[in-house]
Amino acid sequence: MKILIDPVDIKAGDPDLGRIIGGMSWPADKPGYAVVLGEERLPRKGGRQHHVRVLAETTHGDKQLFLSEIGELQAMYRTQGWYGRGADEGNLVHLYIYNGDAVKRGLRAIEFYAAPYSRDGRVELYADMSIKLLQPASKYLHLGAADIAKYLSIPPDERTTATANTHPAVAALGYALAVFELYPAAEEDGGKKVEEEEDVDPLTGY
Fold first, then answer.
1. Are 72 and 55 a contacting pair, CB within 8 Å?
2. d(CA 170, CA 86)
3. What's this model's pTM, rounded to 2 decimal places?
């Protein structure tokens, strides 16, 4: 587990963050990856975009230990939800077991939601989005010293076949970013997270 911005600093208002959410990709062909993203409460001067920072990250090959670390990050950063691929019932069983045990021990269950457009497991869309948001012309994603920066490049011949199983870091980051992209802070109702069905177009509703 790597802490990039200590929760104590967040509580002190440096940086002043609004929404804090997590993205997670289950262990499979490679160890699973999870990342916590924090969205700055106010846009930067001269712009309208709320910048997003990586606050923490973790990776693990064991599913129950992976979930345990996500639970710790959830408690530390008070995340408003964790987004991942919800189509894999086998993995959701692991989550169900973890949450049941957590509740018995007086801990908060992991609040898991299906990430937008994650059903088929492909990550090309998320890779393109992450790269775009790191470019100077449209930059509002800040990785800092996060290790995840090493894993975001996908070879051209693998792009169309890359999945969350083969590129878990790309998936984890993309799942959380997609929520910020599709549901901007200005569209929140009273500061509450807007819930949408997976794979529903936010513009047409179909």
1. no
2. 16
3. 0.84
